[in-house]
Amino acid sequence: MVTKTDWLEYDVEEMVAGDKNDLWHHLKPHKCFENQEQMIIVEGKGLNVTDIRGRKYLDATSGGVWSVMVGYGRDSIAEAVCEQMKKMPYFAGVFGNVPAIKFAGKLLEKLPRLQKVYFSNSGSEANEKAYKIVRQASRIDPARKGKYKILFRDRDYHGTTLGALSSTGQFERKNDFGPFVEGFMEVPQCLCYRCNFNQTYPGCNMECARAVEDVILREGPDTVGAIIFEPITAGGGILPPVKEYYPLVQEICRKYGVWIIMDEVVCGFGRTGKFWGHEHYDVDPDIITMAKGLASSYEALSATVVKQEIYDIFLNDPANDDERMNFFRDISTYGGCTAPMVAALESTRIIEEENLVENSREVGAYLLEKLSTLKDLPNVGDVRGVGLFCGVEFVVDQESKVPITESQMAVLMGNIIGEGVIVGRTNNSLPGMNTIINFAPCLIITREQVDTIVAAVRAGIEKTF
């Protein structure tokens, strides 16, 4: 019989064996477990985590996928969730609940140009909702008839479902999962370090942005309904566009009636030194999706937020049977959970009261400055980032920009973790280009912790090459 405390007690060797024999891990080749023990994290406080063997690490990844915004061990979030779950844990999202109403209001305070919030449980699902809105609008709105296609950018990632993968520009994430959903078309990425058009900024003609119009014209403007972006490309290598990029893209989209969807799943909630990643640019999205930092990953939650004019497309006077079906016919089971809303409210309160967005801006600038000192090492090709969201790209030599090998990258990652610091990397995404280390620590990070991270990375590089 399972007792109330069983989940708190464990035998180390039993857990190690269970991890190897029972779990199907994310993004890990099965052979990884034949000759090595997987790290099992059991405790966290602030930016520090402890594994099941008692080894301590400074985590520069906010939980591995950039989502624990306010740090580990926040009792106030756990207590708020506990109290809410005792009172009312769940009721389907076709009804209302007080935490959801309150958090929707808080989100709209942060997004004054948008008016309606749809809750679900993951970033993939939030993007799926956006796509379904675009697709259904193309059937029921006379002004948008036939505009069902959705453009996406090379190297951007939008989720793990088949629809979200269809809009993802990372070949290795998609390989073997096709055929994909029809109606998704790729546009070029906007990385100056490896320009697709062999141009040099600022002397270029912003070919990367103008290519969006080329794709719209190729596909037919009467068929293209939306384009989705990560404000700053995340898993594709930390790619911040130049300031002219989004205004030009927006001008093109407005010309052809193409909605702009901003995927703020990674960039939102202060990651980039502003509350939203798109706030670094002069751009006005029509739909914004979000997850990860929404509740600092203390609970699972995502949202799709839209302008009133989009919501109004689905408001129809049911004069006949056809119009009765024109509402947005969608549901998300876990969009009715109350605990994530409470966790999100408390996490957002912490971000605001502790000025963590400002800390992200200030300490993020310090992180980028310190990482830039690594350029004195011959295998460091590029250092880039915004706020607490930085990347370092590794090359054989700085002149050729030829990427290092995957095996060298694996050795480098092992050497850095051997220094007691966990960093992330572009992984299983870009053929021959999974050579970028990424840094996205919790927003509470200090300058002293930045120094520890960069020192560990330098030591790891020097041991590897």
From TrEMBL:
In Swiss-Prot or TrEMBL terms, this protein is called Taurine--pyruvate aminotransferase
Question: Which first-to-last residue range defines the signal peptide?
Answer: none
**Family label:** Belongs to the class-III pyridoxal-phosphate-dependent aminotransferase family.
InterPro entries assigned to the protein according to its UniProt record, in alphabetical order: Aminotrans_3, Aminotrans_3_PPA_site
Species per Swiss-Prot/TrEMBL record:
Desulfomarina profundi
Q: What cellular component terms from Gene Ontology apply here? A: cytosol
**Known catalytic reactions:** taurine + pyruvate = sulfoacetaldehyde + L-alanine
Kindly list any coiled-coil regions of this protein: none
What is the uppermost EC class here?
Answer: transferase
- Record's keyword terms, sorted: Aminotransferase, Pyridoxal phosphate, Pyruvate, Transferase
Q: EC no.?
A: 2.6.1.77
What gene codes for this chain?
yhxA
Q: Which domain of life is it from?
A: Bacteria
Q: Which Pfam families match?
A: Aminotran_3
Cofactor needs: pyridoxal 5'-phosphate
Which Gene Ontology terms cover its molecular function? pyridoxal phosphate binding; taurine-pyruvate aminotransferase activity
